[in-house]
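Reviewers asked in the last cycle whether our approach scales beyond single polypeptides. To address this, we selected a multi-component target totalling 336 residues and predicted its structure end to end. The input consisted of the following lines:
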Amino acid sequence: MLAAMSLRIALLGLLTTVGPASGYDLAKTFDGSLNYVWQAGHTQIYPELVKMHADGLVTVEAEGARGRKIYAITPEGERELRTWMEEHDPVLPGRSEIALQAFLLHLVDHDQAIAVVERIRARYRAQLERLKALRPGEFGRHAHALGLTLARAGLQWADTTLADLRGD
Amino acid sequence: MLAAMSLRIALLGLLTTVGPASGYDLAKTFDGSLNYVWQAGHTQIYPELVKMHADGLVTVEAEGARGRKIYAITPEGERELRTWMEEHDPVLPGRSEIALQAFLLHLVDHDQAIAVVERIRARYRAQLERLKALRPGEFGRHAHALGLTLARAGLQWADTTLADLRGD
DNA sequence: CGGTACATGTAAAAGGTTACATGATTTC
DNA sequence: GAAATCATGTAACCTTTTACATGTACCG
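The resulting structure, written as structure tokens, was:
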């Protein structure tokens, strides 16, 4: 069993949380709230559901109009999900364009550096606003709190850095 | 020109910051400090340098012992790097195993939830310690500050969440 | 009957990881 | 002369993105 497969876990988690759903539904949910913690488009979700079906983690519970297929999690899928939560040691994101720009700030001149940090600030600001606008429950409560905390921290860094750059 | 290509930017940034270097050197630097903002192994770096050479962004300045090749950034490479810093709107990391576990916390029982958050806490703690141990200058000053701020925020979330879980 | 939302897919390319492979130089 | 480090690479595989492709049902 591979270490990654987080897309699988996200799908199994959604099926457990919201009950049986189609790939289309799951893609919408990704778009609406889960996308703050894990992103995936329908072109990744549909084939993955087929593989999960082959692996016995989900079943096709019903087929509706327009070829709609309703997937439900199986006991084996539940076991896989629980095992991952209990045993998987999560890794910190190892790539961040924002952190890379921060890292390379010294390579651009003073005014450009300010512009870069202001762009980063706007990103964190937008993230914070989007998270604040989410209805509670639309997003896992603890993940929501984590997202808010990290967005506020990023914003704080941007403000401190701008003050530093301007007042030198 | 594609939107991503951040590995290229990271390599160009390093060549500008530390001067001409071999793929081996660059891989070491990735390992030592840049890895907090962008990760890449030598198997990704070597072929990328070859492509960047073909695209005129770097030159092979010298060849040393053991087939060592010293790459230097070209004016075109400098232009590419500057353009990215000036124009690229950075995106927030869209996938986090930590956030995914936080999102799915409600699916495991109380004791397991505490164990999950403690594991996450240990991750942020280790990150914070590693960043604090870095000699200043070994890591871009602003990226270092951002890393510290985000690690402290994650730690804070973990502490708050643990208190919340324990005192219900 | 035209537009929007529903619903599912495939294929090619890009980005990233793991395993394999080779050989030179230095240090003890 | 054995071990560690230097130094570069390839191949297979997995993950993710982008572009292409198709057809159904509902709403006005």
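Residues 2, 4, 7, 39-41, 43-44, 65-67 of chain A lie near DNA strand D (CB under 10 Å from a C1'). We regard this as preliminary and will revisit it once experimental data from Aim 1 are available.
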